[in-house]
Amino acid sequence: MRTSGVLHATRGLGLHDHICWPYDDPAEFRRRAVEFLADGLALGQRCWYVSEGPTEELLSHVAELGAALDSGALRVVSIDDTYGDGGAVTPAEQVATYAAATRAALADGFSGLRVAAEATPMVRGDEALDAFCRYEHLVDRYMAGEPFAAMCAYDRTELPASAIGQLACLHPASGTGGSPFRLYAVPHARVALDGELDLESRDDFTRALDRADLRAGGGPVVVDGSSLEFIDHHALFALSRAADGDVVLRTRRSAPARLAALVGVPGLRVEAE
Amino acid sequence: MRTGAARGHEGYFHETAFYGSDADFQALVVPFLDEGVSAGEPVLVACGAANERLLRDRVADPSALRFLPGSDQYSRPTDTILEYRKVFAEYAGVAQIRVVGDVPHTGTGASWDWWSRYEAAVNDIFAEVPLWGLCPYDLRTTPADVLADVLRAHPRVAGAGGRHLANPDYLGSWTWPEPDRDPLEVEHPLVDLLDPSPAEARRAVSAACVATRLTRDELDDVVYAASEAVTNALTHGKPPARLRVWADDAHVVVAVADRGEGPASPTAGLVPTERTTTAGLGLWLTHRTCRDVSLSRDADGFTIRMVVGGST
């Protein structure tokens, strides 16, 4: 079971978890990254700390995990070496890179790979942001099935709130002030939804659905809505459109089924869990 | 070829009539029904139980009429419109359909606001249907303000002695009814928020309903209705939006106001709008789920009031 929802800490996350961490204070981000990586080391994952800047500076950020640096379980990686030259990523290639690194970690006897990344440089500009959002969902799919965990930190003092929202909603877990909803990968359904889908999330939800490309794969699109607190009819229609009118929403609440029956959303079935 | 007073008329022939006794009612309606039956037209009766009995007793052939139980047919305007659309579709291609219906109002224990909008809106909604609709009102029970609205909403009026006239009081345009205030509104509201987000509105309404005996569905409905009303105020109205909530143990009243004009047409909320996939559906859903919805406008702007739950 992946951890989902709005979290106030980066502690206690498992082998498949994926958290977005918007921050205002770089020192606070580093403290959270160290906590996240320390848990990974305890779980036997190979850990990477990825950020901009010279290697010596990055080493100083994770100095308190020195023993792991010495043993090779923890590495620091300057961002240019991980994601290329700072232009828009190619989502599939980027996922392939992390998949290879995860396999290498497993081959070397680790339980998987864990990365804490300061990814702000990857989303400067609309095109880069869009490509990286697509990557965030694609890599999330990989993480749901393989022992790769990540913390993606974004600098709120540099990025507009709208960019933070678009990124945060594509992670199963997020720090506070990210997004009112989350769309993420789970092993038992095409995607899972968490949080509240209403006016505030309308544009981001449509974008997230597009970036997650629900149409890929055959048969009805199964959506796990067991953690949804609220969904309005606009979001039900958006879901139906994104799934080409063949979608099953599984939820614990009775309201979405009642709503869908009253309004008549084409090709949407709501199943109570 | 249409028969009777609607001969030569195209589309909806929307007529009202007023009666002061059972005999008057029969004298107005029975010839309307019998003529339709003789002409081979579909003839529908959607009246309350007492009026239905009066008609069954007097018409030439009750078995030639289609009776729609009035209490079901007029439970709420959205459902009435959906049901009539279905029924009229069955008669596609006929020259004329005749319907007599008892529209509810305050005198019969219903809320008038949404039925007054219904009476004005059906002129547009059924404009294309070759329909002769007769809406008789009982002068013994109908209050004066309802009668005034009825006269403004019907282009035709039937009189005693089989007269069918153009109604000189018909406005052809909609005027806002007086607001239907719930008695609870004299109390201090449990919630009074300016410019809440839809999520804040949902939480506030949920919290205000904690001490009520609403069912799960009623709770979902009132929370959804408040969320949609605030969404509409934020997207179509003028700021600030104000949310107020009153509740006793059996029912909840939610009022959402903004400084804008509100909807321009009486059809708003009564039909699922077809112009776009979803615009207007929220208000329509609210009309389908709440016990009562009233829309009003005053010097300060537009207010929607929604009531969910029992009346005591």
Oligomeric state of the chains in view? heterodimer
Report the β-strand fraction of chain B as a percent range.
15-25%
Give me the secondary-structure category of chain A. alpha/beta
Total strand segments of chain B: 12
The assigned CATH architecture of the largest domain in chain B is: 3-Layer(aba) Sandwich
Rg measurement of chain B, Å: 21 Å
Report the total helices of chain A.
Answer: 10
Q: Uncertain spans of chain A, ≥5 residues at pLDDT below 50?
A: none
Fraction of residues in helix of chain B:
25-40%
Instruction: Measure the end-to-end span of chain B.
Output: 51 Å
Mean pLDDT across every amino acid position of chain A: 94
Keywords (chain B): Kinase, Serine/threonine-protein kinase, Transferase
Pfam family, one (chain B): MEDS
Domain MEDS (chain B): 14-155
Protein name (chain B): Sensor histidine kinase
Describe it for me?
With 273 residues, chain A is α/β, with parallel strands linked by helices. Chain A has two domains: 5-179, P-loop containing nucleotide triphosphate hydrolases (Rossmann fold, 3-Layer(aba) Sandwich), CATH 3.40.50; 189-272, 2-Layer Sandwich (Transcription Regulator spoIIAA), CATH 3.30.750.24. Chain A contains ten helices and twelve strands. Chain A has helices at 26-42, 55-61, 66-71, 79-83, 91-107, 126-145, 161-168, 202-212, 233-242, 255-263, and strands at residues 5-6, 18-23, 45-51, 74-78, 112-118, 148-155, 173-174, 181-186, 189-197, 221-231, 247-251, 268-272. In chain A, helix 8 packs parallel to helix 9 (233-242). The longest helix of chain A has 20 residues, at 126-145. The model of chain A has no long low-confidence stretch (mean pLDDT 94). Chain B has 312 residues and is α/β, with parallel strands linked by helices. Chain B has a seven-stranded mixed beta sheet, with helices on both faces. Chain B has a five-stranded antiparallel beta sheet with strand order 8-9-10-12-11, covered by helices on one side. In chain B, strand 9 (242-247) and strand 10 form a beta hairpin. The termini of chain B are far apart. The model of chain B has no long low-confidence stretch (mean pLDDT 93). The A-B interface holds A 180, 196, 198-200, 230, 232-234, 237, 253-255, 258-259, 262-263 and B 197-199, 202, 216-217, 220, 224, 227-228, 231, 234-235, 272, 277-278, 281-282, 285, 288-289.
